[in-house]
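User: Quick sanity check before I run a bigger batch. Here is a single chain. Can you write out its predicted 3D structure?
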Amino acid sequence: MKLSSSRLRPRTALVRRAAMVAAIALATAGLATGCSSSGSSSGSSAGSNTLTIWTYADPKQAPFIKKLESDFKETHPDVTIKYLVVPFDQLTNKIITAASTRTGPDLIVYDPANTASLVQAGALADITKEWDGFKDKSEFPEYATRVIDGKTYSTQAYVNTTALYYNKDILDKAGISNPPSTFEELQSDLKQVVGAGFKGIAQCGAPTSECETQAVAWILGNGGNYNDFQSPDVKKVFQDWYDLGKAGALGADSVGWTQPDAWSAFTKGDYAFTQNGNWQYQSAKDLTFKWGVAPLPGGKVAPGGEGQALGAFSKNRSLAWDYLSSTWLSKAGQVQTFEMSGSIPTRKDAQADPSVANDPNIVAWTTELKDTGTRSEFKDPSDYLKATTAVGQQWSALRQGTTTPDAAASTLADSLKGVFVSK
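Assistant: Done. Predicted structure follows.
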């Protein structure tokens, strides 16, 4: 099975997904499994005007999902949309189990990292014909679709990823006129703000896959990847952040922090920087100090966000594609989603819309998306969580100074041997 454009997303940690509920009301774990506009749904119904959607993103807490539904009903008043909300860590298995009995939903909103597993189980519909016939196909970049063995299986209406938020008041007091544009500048700025009596960068510090999302951008940006943890490129990243930790630039109180914890620390005005996501952008508008957002200096993001796919056993396939293409994948739908949640549109014309393009801070994310990265391909998609957790654990230990760069590289190389496709 050849996987292309299947960017394995930084979207695995349940803690991070719970954080995103607070910020953009997406990606929760442990939610009740029944949520519907008119009751819960177990699967697709033949010959009806009812669409069933399985997801871990609760529409009750994600207003943009309900708004997309109401938009569709303006032209399809007889259609009923039912949601089944399943905890993140259970959704993939539930879909696969249903597919084994040739049942399942009409539409799935899910973590694209699980695309290969779902395709192997025969749970996703091949939408190549629909996608190739989609009049707006040219508006979407490569990373917005998941293609396996030449067949398109899912789309992505928006992305979520990290960038560098900065406290302009602190930078001014430390004598720094502009945010860093290279990693070397970031290193210098961190030493300068710490020397001026301020705290450096607030980051996720917990030993979980949530914190792997912090590490991957720097590894990819330095030319490294996960299929060779012993490479000089990867070891340099480990050494650089180890050194920053030893220099006091990462904050002694950050041990065990989740991404929401790091954001909370930044909002108090003590830290010069935080590596955090666009899901915090709406709440950033309430900050009491001058702030801005810059592309990760020297980093390269692997875009995150939810994928949208048609269920292989949908009995309302045409209606499901009509709903998906006219709402989630439309320019108006993506701009609206951005305005309500802060998620970055994948469509080029939506990114160029004044409500997106005229915001100087959003440019940080759209700039990053012009040159994205992807982790090394996994031999078995089920190893995704294992690998990202292992990286998160070593990243946390490096920041705390409880391991060395060489030891972290060796531990990862040994524990994840054979997990990734060779170069």
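The first strand starts at residue 3 and ends at 4.

User: Great, the batch can go ahead then.
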